């Protein structure tokens, strides 16, 4: 652009000079011919090379995998010369931060979308349907499609959660994981441990922290249970109005957590997930509600994986002996369709390498602890993923991730505040506020969608 601009100026100067000097037309044409060649050469020198590589900018949802992603990105750059930048969310509200970044002058090329956020993000989602990356999926059920059947996202991690158990401590209390096949049995064992806490030297449950780093375990993952069983009863995968039929069960489980814990219930509002993990690692509690993503943290702390187990999140509903773990995903990769063609290609190449190469699949399986739903997935040493496979092979029914239909983060926040308030003062009146947040706010938000 600049070279053309200066060329035009030079052309006008030469024309005026030639008129003043009354040079021949032939001389003028010769000079102009040379000028055109010069300008053309400048444009070639300053234009972008045709084979210039694009770059990748991944805005990561999962802070527990940040270190492993940074290592994998560095390895890929070393192997290919393609720049890969991984930035991990800095607050509890990924969607808000993502939208800010997508509207910035340097937006991510790769981000995470979920069923609950697809309506907000589908305008940015590149259709992955005809890509080689999409063809690597081992089951099309892991594709996230919009109402036009466009593939807006592809699941890159299928995860499992339940109650993680320290087998050694449970045995010291006189029990085995096989003794727990229902909420009734879990409750009896937990309350027995609490009654002998001083002699045993440990509590039943790790703290149910309601700090923003931890509250998702309860306002989302525990809240999944009453949603799931109501959906089952009504043979639905989405209800815009719920009755809260299983909120009494929710109260029973919440009471079990907060009244048989390492921390007093009125202190939970400042308790973090790091503190809960630390309690479990240091042998201060037997039970810890969390998921397969926590495996790497526990193993890195020195835990023997054979001393770990995960039991279902029993809820006192249905055939509990045939209940499996909570298994699903809200982790869908999406590519920013507003990125440049080069960056879209670079990003597709990167994620395809992640799920097909030995280095990529091993990192995702072993360092990140993921089960990835792709044809060339590496074997996972994650004991919780293995246990989920065993439960499934035994015919136990996995609990689906129905929390992905929760109407908004606002709904979750209000429920979390109500649960925290109830924990500090466990009255019927305060539980009614929990029910109001759960049922009334659900209907209100879906009406406003």
Description of the molecule:
This protein is an alpha/beta fold and 449 residues long. It has two domains: 56-158 and 329-375, Periplasmic binding protein-like II (D-Maltodextrin-Binding Protein, domain 2, 3-Layer(aba) Sandwich), CATH 3.40.190; 161-326 and 393-448, 3-Layer(aba) Sandwich (D-Maltodextrin-Binding Protein, domain 2), CATH 3.40.190. The chain contains 19 helices and twelve strands. The strands form three sheets. Strands 6, 7, 8, 9, 10 and 12 form a six-stranded mixed beta sheet that branches. Strand 1, helix 3 and strand 2 (84-88) form a beta-alpha-beta unit. Residues 1-25 and 30-50 have low confidence and may be disordered.
What's the short story on this structure?
The protein has 449 residues and is α/β, with parallel strands linked by helices. The chain is built from 19 helices and 12 strands.
Strand-helix topology:
Layout: H1 2-21, H2 25-46, E1 56-60, H3 66-80, E2 84-88, H4 94-102, E3 110-113, H5 118-121, H6 132-135, E4 143-145, E5 151-155, E6 159-166, H7 167-172, H8 183-195, H9 197-200, E7 203-205, H10 216-222, H11 224-233, H12 247-259, H13 273-281, E8 285-291, H14 295-300, E9 308-311, E10 323-328, E11 332-335, H15 341-356, H16 358-367, H17 383-393, E12 397-399, H18 409-424, H19 428-448
Parallel strand pairs: 1-2, 7-8, 10-12
Antiparallel strand pairs: 3-11, 4-5, 5-11, 6-8, 6-9, 6-10
**CATH topology call of the largest domain:** D-Maltodextrin-Binding Protein, domain 2
Q: How large is the share of residues in beta strands?
A: 5-15%
- Global outline: globular
What's the gyration radius in Å? Answer: 29 Å
Number of helices: 19
- Arithmetic mean of pLDDT: 89
Number of domains: 2
Poorly predicted sequence stretches spanning 5 or more consecutive residues: 1-25, 30-50
- Largest sheet properties: 6 strands, mixed
Assign a percent range to the helix content.
Answer: 40-55%
Helix and strand composition category = alpha/beta
Q: From the coordinates shown, what is the CATH architecture of the largest domain?
A: 3-Layer(aba) Sandwich
């Amino acid at each position: 652009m600049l070279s053309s601009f200066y060329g035009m100026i030079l052309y006008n100067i030469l024309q005026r000079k030639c008129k003043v000097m009354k040079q021949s037309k032939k001389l003028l044409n010769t000079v102009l011919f040379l000028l055109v060649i010069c300008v053309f050469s400048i444009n070639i020198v300053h234009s972008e090379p045709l084979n210039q590589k694009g770059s990748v900018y991944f805005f990561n949802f999962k802070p527990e995998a940040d270190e492993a992603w940074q290592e994998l990105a560095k390895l890929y750059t070393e192997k290919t010369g393609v720049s890969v930048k991984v930035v991990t969310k800095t607050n509890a509200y990924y969607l808000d931060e993502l939208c800010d970044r997508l509207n910035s002058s340097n937006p991510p090329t790769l981000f995470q979308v979920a069923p609950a956020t697809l309506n907000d993000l589908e305008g940015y989602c590149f259709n992955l349907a005809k890509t080689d990356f999409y063809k690597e999926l081992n089951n099309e059920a892991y594709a996230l499609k919009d109402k036009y059947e466009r593939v807006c996202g592809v699941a890159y991690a299928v995860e499992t959660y339940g109650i993680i158990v320290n087998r050694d401590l449970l045995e010291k209390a006189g029990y085995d994981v096989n003794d727990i096949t229902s909420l009734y049995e879990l409750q009896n064992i937990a309350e027995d441990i609490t009654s002998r806490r001083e002699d045993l030297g440990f509590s039943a449950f790790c703290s149910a922290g309601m700090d923003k780093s931890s509250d998702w375990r309860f306002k989302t993952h525990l809240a999944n249970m009453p949603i799931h069983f109501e959906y089952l009863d009504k043979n639905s995968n989405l209800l815009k109005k719920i009755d809260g039929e299983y909120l009494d069960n929710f109260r029973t489980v919440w009471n079990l957590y907060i009244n048989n814990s390492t921390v007093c219930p009125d202190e939970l509002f400042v308790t973090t997930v790091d503190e809960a993990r630390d309690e479990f690692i240091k042998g201060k509690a037997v039970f810890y509600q969390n998921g397969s993503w926590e495996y790497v943290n526990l193993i890195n702390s020195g835990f023997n994986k054979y001393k770990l187990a995960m039991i279902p999140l029993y809820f006192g509903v249905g055939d509990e002996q045939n209940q499996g773990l909570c298994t699903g995903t809200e982790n869908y990769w999406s590519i920013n369709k507003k990125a440049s063609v080069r960056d879209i290609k670079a990003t597709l190449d990167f994620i395809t390498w992640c799920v097909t190469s030995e280095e990529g699949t091993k990192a995702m399986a072993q360092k990140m602890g993921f089960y990835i739903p792709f044809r060339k997935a590496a074997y996972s040493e994650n004991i919780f993923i293995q246990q989920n496979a065993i439960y499934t092979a035994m015919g136990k029914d996995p609990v689906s991730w129905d929390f992905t239909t929760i109407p908004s983060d606002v709904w979750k926040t209000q429920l979390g505040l109500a649960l925290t308030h109830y924990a500090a003062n466990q009255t019927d009146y305060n539980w009614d506020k929990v029910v109001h947040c759960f049922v009334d706010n659900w209907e209100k938000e879906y009406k406003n969608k």
